[in-house]
Amino acid sequence: MPGPKGLDPLLQSAEGGTSDRFLKKGLRLGHLRLILALERTGHLSRAAELLATSQPAASRLLTEMEQITGVKLAERQGRGMTLTLYGERLAARARLVLRELDEADRELENLKSGLAGSVSVGAVTGAAVEYVLPAIRQTRVTHPLVNVSVEVNTSDVLTAALDDGRIDFFIGRVPAALDPRSYEARFLDHEPLRVIVRAEHPLTRLSGVTLQDCVPYDWVLQPDGAMLRVAVEAYMRNKGIPYPTKVLNTSSILLTLMVISQTNAITVVARPVADFFTLGGEGGGRIASLDIAGDVPIQPYSLIKLASRKLAPVAQNFHDLILSRASVLE
């Protein structure tokens, strides 16, 4: 229940407790530095030199600290000065406070320079393999404190995520229905397509296979409206090839691979994805690529961010890594 004057109990506790009593009575960082300098040197004059101040000023700081805390913090011993038990305890706490401030300074500098922080990036599947994975590997080496989140999906889903602020930028295509002036797009690459099937698929035993030969089989395609699917359907329509009638719709590349590796189903993917699961052997020898969709025209993908939003340094660094990757692949 709210206490007097409608204050929340937690706020009342902080107000009435001792958590900020020293600050209210005037304790400053200069006081904390002095108690640590005294602990280190054992002399008031040397502590003053360490802090680049005069001995009278250091003596005044010590007097202020003792008035604020209400206890004796140091006492003379011969020509030097020794901390009391109270002084030792305060010095230990002062060390923690100043260390935390140093950590805060480093953390803020890292955030400003892009050395630390979080970046959220989206990508269509082919671009995730070709661009995002290499950028993540490099970031792990050069910026180990950066946390990278990746959403792999279709361009329309990624555009919505960008508009909602859930990702910083993505690699894909801006849907034609949207105003392109709202986005800043940097061309990256064309996206050749490949048909992939299980390694023992009947089509792998034939020569001169065409897209027409694939129609009777089950297909796994991205949902209606996804740009890769639209491109494949437009190509088939222009070539007079009938649409497949047995289609599983999914945007999940994992489900797609599981289906085609266990059945005679067919799918169309970007060439980097096909290469990853065939040439590199990551498909365990169960996936084969059919080079029969390379001439399917599909809009090139770009690196896309909101034109009105300035990227944070950590996101800008990752953005630039992807651009540099594109220049290497040219």
UniProtKB/TrEMBL annotation:
Protein name: Transcriptional regulator
Annotated organism of origin: Roseibium suaedae
Gene Ontology CC entries for this record: cytosol
Gene3D superfamilies, A to Z: 3.40.190.290, Winged helix-like DNA-binding domain superfamily/Winged helix DNA-binding domain
Molecular function terms from GO: DNA binding; DNA-binding transcription factor activity
InterPro entries assigned to the protein according to its UniProt record, in alphabetical order: HTH-type_LysR_regulators, LysR_HTH_N, LysR_subst-bd, WH-like_DNA-bd_sf, WH_DNA-bd_sf
Keywords: DNA-binding, Transcription, Transcription regulation
Signal sequence, renumbered to the chain: none
Domain HTH lysR-type: 27-84
Source organism phylogeny: Bacteria, Pseudomonadati, Pseudomonadota, Alphaproteobacteria, Hyphomicrobiales
Stated family: Belongs to the LysR transcriptional regulatory family.
SUPFAM superfamilies, per database record: Periplasmic binding protein-like II (SSF53850), Winged helix' DNA-binding domain (SSF46785)
